[in-house]
Amino acid sequence: MKQEGYIDGLVSVIMPCYNATAHLEEAIESVLAQTYKNLELLIVDDASTEPIENIIWKYRKDDRIRYVKHSMNHGVAVARNTGLLQSKGRYVAFLDSDDLWHSDKLKQQLFVMNTRQVAFMYSAYEVVRDTPDNKINTIQVPQQINYNGLLKNTIIGCLTVLIDRKQTGYFEMPIISVGEDSATWLNILKEGHVAYGIQKPLAKYRVAGHSLSSNKLKMVKGTWRMYRQTQNLSILKTSYYFSFYVINAILKRI
């Protein structure tokens, strides 16, 4: 288990992918276009059947990019954990292979993080359907959130997160099918950290038009299980926090 020896100033970007040839190059370019240049990008291929290597080959001369391929499909949580274990940076961020960052995402977050000495940053983000310009909604976020607040509203988008591992210590994602990212943030905040948000959208979360209804139902069921399994909440407490989650999910309208 990796505990120390991270490179100060380096941001490790973890990008899990599975059969993501349609949007992978666009996601990679949004990382490489960051105005903050001290970064590494770990692309973890979760045993894709599509020719992901053909896209990665275009970036073979960029030593900031590392490509790791699983021999078997394990799911997104395991893929992210592979990236976490192999990453070298003090700071860690996540971007899925069909999502995008604004060019100053890391620069803005690092400025606030270092100015205020906080361990956990997130931001608002846009939800787009299929193409980056087809915006459905903007997910607004609070200026800060603690453990109890996040239980009531799983508002933190994984694609917006930046974490200082020098302050949080080693962490990894629980191996569950839904809500592994929210469970991770809850585990970090449970240790007493407070997460701080930038209210300007710094990323774009892409959804496919045909998958919206099925994804919402899956998330609702998975969030209940996540509360019970990873946070060890009683049925009474789960019901209490889950009621807030449902209300806030409706307000987000996604």
UniProtKB/TrEMBL annotation:
Keyword Isomerase attributed: no
Domain Glycosyltransferase 2-like: 12-138
Species in which this protein is naturally found: Bacillus thuringiensis
Matches recorded under InterPro entries: Glyco_trans_2-like (IPR001173), Nucleotide-diphossugar_trans (IPR029044)
Family: Belongs to the glycosyltransferase 2 family.
Gene Ontology MF: a single term: hexosyltransferase activity
Keyword Kinase appears in the UniProt entry: no
PANTHER family, sorted: GLYCOSYLTRANSFERASE, UDP-GLCNAC:BETAGAL BETA-1,3-N-ACETYLGLUCOSAMINYLTRANSFERASE-LIKE PROTEIN 1
Key words of the record: Transferase
Annotated protein name in UniProt: Glycosyl transferase
